[in-house]
Each structure stands twice: as structure tokens, then as C-alpha cells.
Design a protein that fits this description.
This protein has helices at about 215-225, 230-235, 235-245, 265, 290-295, and strands spanning about 5-15, 20-30, 65, 70, 75, 80-85, 90, 95-100, 105-110, 120, 140-145, 155, 160, 165-175, 185-190, 195-200, 210-215, 250-255, 305-310. It has about 325 residues and is mainly beta.
């Protein structure tokens, strides 16, 4: 389990093999260390065998939740032969350290109004039109340099060159610069070619200059972009800080998006919008269809290596 407050998490990644529509993700979730084994007698296999996963999307595709088969109301997904959805979802706070392909990247804080891994259904999961009535902030508060007005920062041949490996540093700053403090800021910097690269500063009219995720940054972006401020409604940074106190579990994945083709990460979304914040990356609005991605990029891969964790400014060379 990782205790993030007053610490930094660093890793090296290579996303050069990921085209539009794919997401090589590294993130933390506030699941139980043992996968719910101690709380739920039927969860005997525990985390070792995949029990207990949760995240801020309250996923309904989990085969088992709290040790019980999620078979009630199970329906196969129309566009994904390998998945389906049951009645129940399993929800918890989530820190997306890295969601990226070779064209775009974002890091995102997802707060929840309840702590720990919890089982819910329907409105409590924020299903369908009740997205903002659930217990977790599904949208999250994200920092995407392209979306925030810096379109020459991340990508092949750019300042952070996604055609080459890059070291990603994420810092969790507390109110008193101690482990005991409340989380108030999530900072980002990069190291590439032995050079430290500071994160971009926002370049959108109406958003105060910022290069990290804070409550003020989130309030500004939600207001200017016209997004529902579910981050604030679900407890903002203080709520997220409480959720991660017991420790969080590291997750890595490579996935395509059977809902909206990853356009929220690397293209324009909503696709018919020209409002501030709609442009999130350079990919075409027709890109990212799983059938295309899976047939055209079957050998796509992402590399994560050299994972380090420690006090602020201790895990990379300045």
C-alpha cells in the first residue's frame, strides 16, 4: 500500500507504441489491501486472485464484488464480446497518475463521498443520466496540458517527446509539509534526456495561472469549461485526502474505450463543441473506435519501469 501524502511517485514510461484511442494507464485506487478478505467472508481468494478492485467509475463489469458473483441483471456489452455489466458496481477514490498515448496525456484526481471500497447500484453508482448523483466524481479534476492551452508540450518531437521514454514525477503536497497534513496540491514534472522539465502553466482566459491540481485550479477549470463541479460536490481535495489515508493500491492497464473511443483524452469531446476545454488532443474525432484500434494496432504496447517512491524531491536527479 502506498501512503501518498508528503511523498512523490516516479516512474519511467514509453508510450511511443500507443496510437490514438489507446490508454496506457498507471493509477492508484483506494481498495482494501487484502481485496476485502477481512471484511467479507466470501472474499477468501483476496487481492492475489483479483478480488476487491474498485475505482471512481463504479465499474459494473466486475465478476465478483464482496465475494459474491455479480450475476444479477448481467448483460453482455453490445460492442465488447469480452465484457458485460451486472446490477452492482464497486466504487472508491482514484488518483490517475498517468493516462496517456503518444498524442495526449492527463493526470486526474477523483474524489468520492464515501471512503474505502463500497458496493452500490443504480443512482449511487452514477449510472446513465444520474452521473452526478453517484458517490464518486467520475469526471474528476484533470490536468491535460493540451486542454489547458499548451498544444506544443507533449507529443512526438515536442518538449516532452512521446517518441522516447520519459520519467514522470508526481508530488503530493500537504498543508503542513508533513505526512500528517491534509493533501492540498498534486504537482507534476518530467525528466527526459537528463533534463528536468517543469509542467506547463495554464493558458486559458479566465483560468488563473496554475501548473498543478489544487481546489482553486479545479474550481476555475470547471467554471470556465462549463463542466459540472462534481469534484467539489464529492469533497474536493479534502475528501480525497481522507480517502487515501489508509493507503492506496497501484494499478497499471492498457485499454481501449468502448464508450466514447478515448476522445475525452486525445481528441475533441464533445465532438460537436468548440467551447474552451473541448479540445483535449490532436486526434481526429473519428479515431479510437475499438474495432479499428484492435485490428490496426494489435501489437500496441506500453512500458512502465524504474518505479520509485519517497520524500519530495528524492526520487529524481535535478
Amino acid at each position: 500500500m502506498f501512503k501518498l501524502k508528503n511523498k512523490e511517485f516516479t516512474f519511467t514510461t514509453d508510450v511511443s507504441g500507443l496510437p490514438c484511442g489507446l490508454n496506457g494507464a498507471l493509477y492508484f485506487v483506494a481498495m482494501d489491501e487484502d481485496g476485502g478478505k477481512a471484511k467479507h467472508p466470501l472474499s477468501k481468494p483476496g487481492a492475489k486472485y483479483g478480488m476487491g478492485y474498485c475505482d471512481a467509475q463504479c465499474p459494473h463489469d466486475m465478476k465478483f464484488i464482496e465475494g459474491l458473483a455479480n450475476c444479477e441483471g448481467w448483460k453482455p456489452q453490445d460492442n465488447d464480446e469480452n465484457s458485460g455489466n451486472g446490477k452492482y458496481g464497486t466504487c472508491c477514490a482514484e488518483m490517475d497518475i498517468w493516462e496517456a498515448n503518444s498524442q495526449a496525456t492527463a493526470y486526474t484526481v477523483h474524489a468520492c463521498s464515501k471512503t474505502g471500497a463500497t458496493k452500490w447500484s443504480g443512482n449511487d453508482c452514477g449510472d446513465d443520466d444520474n452521473r452526478y448523483n453517484g458517490i464518486c466524481d467520475k469526471d474528476g479534476c484533470d490536468y491535460n496540458s493540451w486542454r489547458l492551452g499548451n498544444q506544443t508540450f507533449f507529443g512526438p518531437g515536442l518538449i516532452v517527446d512521446s517518441s522516447k521514454p520519459v520519467t514522470v514525477v508526481t508530488q503530493f503536497i500537504t498543508s503542513n509539509n508533513q505526512d500528517s497534513g491534509e493533501l492540498v496540491e498534486v504537482r507534476r514534472l518530467y525528466v527526459q534526456n537528463n533534463k528536468v522539465i517543469q509542467n506547463t502553466v495554464t493558458n486559458i482566459q479566465g483560468i488563473k495561472n496554475a501548473d498543478s491540481i489544487t481546489d482553486s485550479f479545479c474550481d476555475d477549470t470547471k467554471s470556465v469549461f462549463g463542466d459540472t463541479n462534481d469534484y467539489k460536490a464529492k469533497g474536493a481535495m479534502a475528501g480525497f485526502s481522507k480517502s487515501i489515508d489508509p493507503g492506496v493500491v497501484l494499478v497499471r492497464s492498457l485499454w481501449d474505450d468502448h464508450s466514447v473511443n478515448m476522445l475525452w483524452l486525445d481528441s475533441t469531446y464533445p465532438t460537436d463543441s468548440n467551447k474552451p476545454g473541448a479540445s483535449r488532443g490532436p486526434c481526429a474525432i473519428t479515431s479510437g473506435k475499438p474495432s479499428d484500434v484492435e485490428s490496426q494496432s494489435a501489437s500496441a504496447s506500453v512500458k512502465f519501469s524504474d518505479i520509485r517512491f519517497g520524500p519530495i524531491d528524492s526520487t529524481y536527479s535535478k
